[in-house]
Structures are given as structure tokens and as C-alpha cells.
Amino acid sequence: MKDTISKKEQRDVLRRLLVYAKTYRRSFTLAFLLLLSATAADIISPILVKVFIDDYLVPRQLETRSLVLLGAAYILLHLAKVMVQYFQLVKFNEIAFRIIQNIRVDVFSKVQRLPMRYFDQTPVGSIVSTVTNDTEAIKEMFVDVAAAFVQNGFFLIGIFIAMFFLNVKLALFCFILFPVIYGLMKTYRRFSSTFYYQMREKLSQLNTKLNESLQGMNIIQIFRQERRLLREFAAVNEEHYQAGLKSIKLDGLLLRPAVDLIYVLTLLLVLSFFGIASQTSPIEVGVLYAFVNYLERFFEPVNQMMMRLSIYQQAIVSASRVFTLLNEEEQSMESSSASTPTIRKGIIEFKNVTFSYDGKRDILKNISFKVKEGETVALVGHTGSGKSSIINLLLRFYPIKAGEITIDGYSLYDLTNEEIRRKIGLVLQDPFLFAGTVKDNIVLHDHTIGEEAIEEAVQFVQAHRFIEALPDKYEHQAAERGTNFSSGQRQLIAFARTIVRNPKILVLDEATAHIDTETEEAIQTALSRMKEGRTTIAIAHRLSTIQNAHLILVLHKGEVVERGTHQQLLEKKGLYYKMYLLQNGLAESHSCQPKKTQSPNL
């Protein structure tokens, strides 16, 4: 993993951020005009003081009317500056919040479209850190950095104009400060980008550790892993601290202290210049005051700009991480064909399908089978045999490596995502519930599903008894992941969620695993009716639940080693037969491995 970003990458990131800012160019223009107005007022104020000293105080021409007008102009100038600063600050923050809002929506939208392979390889905590922490860091750049650099840049130009107005030779001499300060900024940026990148990476790892711990808290406590997790978290936290400490040391060396040193040396030179000049000719006290005041005002914006460099570098590093996510390939598996076929019968066929998650080791090898309209095909086999991978390919979560999958004779990749999701119903072994009402979890905010359809689906899957017993019935609130419901209740809600959409193809991943025996009998009856007229693919661990399947495929190490009905497979006395004996407590010394001499019945 790299620990920094190159200068070219930083420039590309900045250009991409400015694309977001272009949407608000009018608001930016107004904010900058307000900013320039406030800065102009700040530059003019020392001139008024200079006029007061040289034209009124030194010659003792203390005319009341002129002094009142001068004083009133000075006060009004400051009041106007305060009011303008307020409005420009509000405007810049409003723009920044809008830009970050757009970036977050883009990132979240991108996450919804990323392939499952991305989530297999990327920790959840890292994604969360990118969407929240990194986008927040970008906001500071538009609020602080953009305003500060424009304001201070304009301020510096104005100061130099005023310095030339006061003393041309000394103003020209002060130009030597620009290359010195530029070199200081360049050195700071080179080193700070490394430290900030390390900090962001470590913060991402902290979020990953935290997310993993919260998700697996029951396992952590049962197996007494608290101390180990604490040590691992503390180690990452220490690395984050060390990276932050390096950044602080760099800030302490190259930001304000270094600029203050340059300021002191410059001030000595300026005072020496006026001291030497006073030996040969008189100098105006007002000019001396104004020049020293401008010199101080010159270094204050330089200090601010240097301090903002820290925020700028953090924002660039964070934006780089955000854009890395946005650049992830979505791997659209839809055909570009103008035709949009629809699923009418639900005939599924796998033709010599080979698949690999990592592109190296094949999980499925030349899988071929056909499921006719209204038939049920069951997939059985040991853990890791490839059952879930077949379902993942059918739902087009992953692209196949070789072969073809068709539905109703159409290639899976000629169908739209909408058609696949609408016509294929999926019930997983571990159902997921969102925080919200029971009704929301059934319809998933699909307002086209009416109350009558919801009640019919709930009664169909035998879930009405426990829902009616809830205090708020269909409006009862489900906690995050449905933790306030039992496993069986969550499964029943998931059944209702699928049935209410009336899918043409039904995919069941051991859907009755978490349901008690009494409920399972009712569910099996409902499933029998649910399968009528629908093509069904079911993953089964309990062989008793698939005895009526039209076809059973026995998988082993990614290959179909046996196929047939329940009775046919028992008569073969192969792997399925041995699995059946084990589950019924009848096996003694049988090995649940296929015979080496047995060739797959393909």
C-alpha cells in the first residue's frame, strides 16, 4: 500500500474538486466579492491612521471637524468590514456544505452500484471512514483554505501596493520574501502529504477494527477476546498517534515558528533601513508606523496561509481516498443491446459454467444443468462445494469466467438488473432486517404494494400470528438488523418480503434453517403452494426438506458429482446416500467423500 500521493495526483484531485465547485460559481463569485470588500477595508485602515499622524498629529493641526470625519470614516470602515465578513463567512460555509453534500451522495450512490467483489476485498470500516471522515475533511478546504488563500492573496497584493506608495526602494527589497516563503510552503507540502496519508489510513483501520468488534461482540465476549482486541486496537491507535505526532512536529517547525523568524529578521532590516535613512534626512513617523504595520499585516496572512496548508493537505489526501472509491469499476454486466427481454416462464440453464472469485482458483468447474418451468432443483453438498456461488451467479452478483447462463433462452447478461431483481425472489439463511417498521421491512418502501397484498403475503407464510401479537402490529419498530425479533420471526418476515412481490423464480438458501419444527411444518405447506407455477432453486443442508425436488444436484469441490431425484440418489449409494445416512444417524464407518473411481454423472 502506498503511503503518499504524487504531485500529479494532487493536481488531479484539486481539479476534480473544482468541478464540484463550478456548480456554485455564482455563489462563489458573490462570496469572493464580499471577501475582497472586507480585505480592502482592512488595507485602507492603516492609511487613515497614517493620514491622522502625519497630517494632523505631528503638525498639531487638530481641527475638530476634520478629526471627527476621519474618526467616523475609520469606525464606519471597521463596521462595514465586520458586517461583510459575517456574510462572506456564512456564504462560504453554505457552499462548502452543499459541495460535501453532493460528494457524499455521489459516494453513497457509488457504493450501491459496486460489485460484490469490492465488498469482499474492502473492510466495511474503511468504506464508512471514506464516506464520513474523509468527506468532512474536504469541507474544511472550501471553508478555510479557499477563502483564506484568496483573501490573504488579495491582502498581500494590496499591502505591497501600499508599501510602494510609502517607499519604493523598501517595497522592492521586500520582494525577496516571496521566494523564501514559496520554498517554505513547498517543503512543508512535500513532507506533510506523507504524514497525513498515514493518518488517514490509520484512521480507516481504526474504524475497521471498531466495526469488526461491534459486529462480533457476542463472539468476543463468549471467547474472552476483549484483551486481544484491545491490544490490536491500541496498536493501530498508537500508529495513528505517531503519524499525527510527526505532523505536529512538522507544523511546529515549518509553520508559524519559521514564518515568525523570517518576520523578525525582516523587521530588523526595515528598522535598520529607516535608522540609516534618518541619519541623512528626516523621516515621517506616519510612514514608519504604516510600513511596520503593513509588514506585520504582511506576515499575518502568510502565517494564516501556512496554517491553512495543513488543512489543505488533509483535504487533498482525503479527497484522493474519496475519488479512489468513486473511480472503482462498477463492472456493469448488462448487455448494451436495445432489446429488453423479459422473464415469463423462468426456465434456467447453466451451460459449462466456470467461476472464480479471485481469478486464480476455480470455485465452480463446468457446471451444467437445466431447471424447467415450475420445477424445483435442490443443491446439496458440503461447505465450500459451490452451492452459494451458483446462486450468486444466477443473481448476477459476480461475472462468470466461462460458459453461459440463460433464463427463458436469453443470456443472463441480456436481461436488465431491474428485470432480474423483480422476477427472482431470494430468501437467505440469515435474513437482514432494516431499522424501521415491520411493514417497511416487507414492502421496502415500495408504495405500489397495497395493504391487502401485504396481509395476504403475511398469512401465506404463516407470519400473521406473531405480527398480530406485536404491540403495534405492522407498525412495530424493528431494531437494527432486527435484533428485537427471534431468528424464526426474522425469517418469516423475509418470506413475506419475497412473496408479496410474486416472483417468477424462487431462490431459497436453507430458508427454514432458523424456524422451529412446528412453524416449519406450516412453512413447508406454504412453500409447496408458493412453488406452484414458479421455478425454484433451493440450497439444502437438511436433506429431509428436498425429498420432493424434481432434481437434486450433489456438488463436491465445485463439480456436480451426482444428480437425480431423492430416490434415485439413494439407490446409487454414492455421496448423497452417505450424507443421508449421517443426517439420520444410520452411518457407521462411511466416509462422506465421493469415490475416486466414480465419474460425475453429467
Portion of residues in helices?
55-70%
Biggest beta sheet summary: 6 strands, mixed
CATH class of the largest domain: Mainly Alpha
- Using the 3D structure, state the CATH architecture of the largest domain: Up-down Bundle
- How are strands sequenced across the largest beta sheet? 6-9-10-3-11-12
Beta-strand content estimate: 5-15%
Mean pLDDT: 81
Counted up, domains total: 2
CATH T-level topology of the largest domain = ABC transporter transmembrane region fold
Cα separation of the termini: 45 Å
**What form results from the Cα inertia axes?**
elongated
Can you identify the CATH superfamily of the largest domain? ABC transporter type 1, transmembrane domain
Which consecutive residue ranges, at least 5 long each, have pLDDT under 50? Answer: 597-602
What is the gyration radius calculated from CA atoms? Answer: 36 Å
The beta-strand count equals 12
Protein structure class = alpha/beta
Instruction: Work out the helix count.
Output: 20
Reconstruct the topology from this structure.
Elements: H1 7-22, H2 25-57, H3 64-113, H4 116-121, H5 124-166, H6 168-174, H7 177-215, H8 217-222, H9 226-254, H10 256-280, H11 285-326, E1 348-356, E2 362-371, E3 376-381, H12 387-394, E4 402-407, E5 410-411, H13 417-423, E6 424-427, E7 436-437, H14 438-443, H15 451-460, H16 464-468, E8 477-478, H17 487-499, E9 505-509, H18 517-531, E10 535-539, E11 551-556, E12 559-564, H19 566-572, H20 575-583
Parallel strand pairs: 3-10, 3-11, 6-9, 9-10
Antiparallel strand pairs: 1-2, 1-4, 4-5, 7-8, 11-12
Helix pairs in contact: 1-11, 2-3, 2-5, 2-11, 3-5, 5-6, 5-7, 5-11, 7-9, 7-11, 9-10, 10-11, 15-17
